[in-house]
Amino acid sequence: MHAYRSHTCADLNKSNVGETVRLAGWVHRVRDHGGVLFIDLRDHYGMTQVLADPDSPVFSEVEKVRSEWCIRIDGTVKARDESLINDKIPTGEVEVFIRDLEVLGAAEELPLMVFGDQEYPEETRLRYRFLDLRREVMQKNMTLRSDVVASMRRRMWDKGFREYQTPIITASSPEGARDFLVPSRLHPGKFYALPQAPQQFKQLLMVSGFDKYFQIAPCFRDEDPRADRSPTDFYQLDLEMSFVEQQDVFDTIQPVLQGVFEEFGGGRNVDAEWPQISYRDAALWYGSDKPDLRNPIKMQVVSEHFRGSGFAIFAKLLEQDGTEIRAIPAPTGGSRKFCDRMNAYAQKEGLPGMGYIFWRDGADGMEAAGPLAKNIGPERTEAIRQQLGLGVGDAAFFLGGKPKTFEAVAGRARNVIGEELGLTDRDRFAFAWIVDFPIYERDEESGKVDFEHNPFSMPQGGMAALDGDPLEVLGYQYDLACNGYELVSGAIRNHRPEIMFKAFEIAGYGEDEVRKRFGGMVNAFTYGAPPHGGCAAGIDRIVMLLADEQNIREVMLFPMNQRAEDLMMNAPSDPTSDQLMELGLRVIPQD
User: What is the pLDDT of residues 373-410, one digit of tens each?
Assistant: First the structure.
């Protein structure tokens, strides 16, 4: 017999009754039933009930074991009584009578329990992550993650892509976040960087003639943590293709991701139609470039109904350039209590509040109520109701100003309204491509034009587009949103050096600076670069959605905490004097 086990803790069933078996695993819990000791023995695969009574030759040893001890037992498989069958586990028809026991690893007093659903502070869970990962939900999440990655790989190979590994130690390259720098021992005073993404290398692969590339790529960014973002490292399904247009990239990645969500979505509906929404429309309708389309609410511009109206705040606001009034329809939200609650929500978000109108049955039929309705009168109120398609029992909320000052709050309010009114379909994955990103923006204070989004995207219209108003230039850049999260980001790349130099010149960067900062890629583009494009899908976020978790750390094996610390491994740590000497570095104490 094998030194540790003849079966896993999920293998045994009635066909094994009478056999002598060997199992190994962790003591999930111990129960004493009148002198008979029952142990739920757990391994990665499942659970088996084992037991000992005073007739067992190792009964006294079994009495000593505690939760999370790692043990090996030999015993005889017995059928459970009909009334004691546990149909919740595959091994529920049998149990194993213990005849021999070996303690493989005793456990000290536990800082957190593996058995049960107790909640523990995140700091405790991360410090003792090896225990936290033993819990059933974490085992399922990490198994799901592994299975999702394997499925992605198979699907990419089936589409004719090959996986290539790009460097981990490379040059610093601004990608929109801070680099992690690595000092060079052989070149004192100089630094490598961990790649924020394989962006430049995958483009160089296209120049090198590799037509289809993908990689399950580690990426490193020194960022502030959020619930849906790791502060240090993450993984993405990274791909690039030559001789393609934007739609070709969409047609390639959609069946891969749709198949993954159908395979692992737990029966939730996966939308087959992925609409393409312009960046400007997404901002207008949803207040976000990663809209949650499970919520049917679309915001609308209603400025004309308030221009010159009796509601002085909005009327005066609209006299300023670049201002507008937007409405958030709220079907079934037509009660003063709900409207007041949403107004208070806006105030918590830093706005003065949200005006509102709600419609109810009146003595003479439907009537509009609320302060706004009284100020602007019945004709304007009725025009708003008709534009928004609302009726009795519905409401609408209003925000005004320059869109960038209130868009994000409006988007969050839309989400809250959808949730509170039960309009958001929780049993669904809803995808949307966000397209037509503007390349440039103007700083209102300095008047300077700079890049608003990816500077390496090909401008729509090529060189000719760069001769007009920079703020009207759109790029072949795109994101994929799902349920309020950005899952994919990508672009058709600007592979023409002359267009690239012109694009950077508009933002105030001369050719010499571009060559200095991106010399490797620019140089390669002068030697016959093909048109190419691609995207990257965030694996951590995808698994987070599939696992129905709210925090990305629930689907990462060994994540950092909110302060980018690894409490288990004590990182970051102080370097030794010898290490600093070898690297030619000196640490200056912070006040």
Answer: 999 999 999 999 999 999 999 999 999 999 988 999 99
The mean pLDDT value of the chain amounts to 94
- Hey, what amino acid is at 458? M
pLDDT score at 174: 61
Burial annotation 353-367 (CB, 10 A radius, 16+ → b, else e): bbbbbbbbeeeeeee
- Band (228; pLDDT cuts 50, 70, 90): confident
Q: Which residues share a beta bridge with 234?
A: 219
Token pair of 371 as six digits: 């302060």
Whether the Cβ atoms of residue 261 and residue 270 lie closer than 8 Å to each other: yes
| CA dihedral angle for residue 552, residue 556, residue 559, residue 561, rounded to 10 degrees | 30
- How many degrees, rounded to 5, is the angle at CA 55 between CA 49 and CA 56? 50
- pLDDT tens, residue by residue, 500-528: 999 999 999 999 988 988 888 899 999 99
Positive or negative: CA dihedral 73, 79, 80, 85: positive
Instruction: Label residue 567 exposed, middle or buried (CB < 10 Å: 0-12, 13-18, 19+).
Output: middle
> Torsions phi, psi of 297, nearest 5?
-65, 130
Task: Determine the straight-line distance between the first and last CA of the chain, rounded to whole angstroms.
Answer: 63
Residue type at 509 in one-letter notation: Y
Cβ-proximal residues to 478 (8 Å cutoff; 6+ apart), any chain: 246, 249, 250, 433, 434, 435, 437, 488, 489, 490, 491, 535
d(CA 58, CA 102): 10
Per DSSP bridges, beta strands 94-105 and 47-52 are parallel
DSSP one-letter code for 519? H
Q: DSSP secondary-structure letter at 343?
A: H
> Burial letters for 478-490: b for 16+ Cβ neighbours within 10 Å, e otherwise?
bbbbbbbbbbbbb
CA distance 197 to 183: 19
Report pLDDT digits (tens) over 248-303: 999 999 999 999 999 999 999 999 999 999 999 999 999 999 999 999 999 999 99
Q: Which has the closest alpha carbon to 339: 310, 363, 372?
A: 372
pLDDT tens-digit readout, 521-534: 899 999 999 999 99
Task: Tell me the one-letter amino acid at 171.
Answer: A
Contact 451, 326 (CB under 8 A): no
CA distance 410 to 354: 9
Rounded Cα gap, residues 159 and 248, in angstroms: 12
What is the arithmetic mean of pLDDT over 136-157? 98
How many Cβ atoms from other residues are within 10 Å of residue 520's Cβ?
A: 15
Q: What pLDDT is attached to residue 229?
A: 83
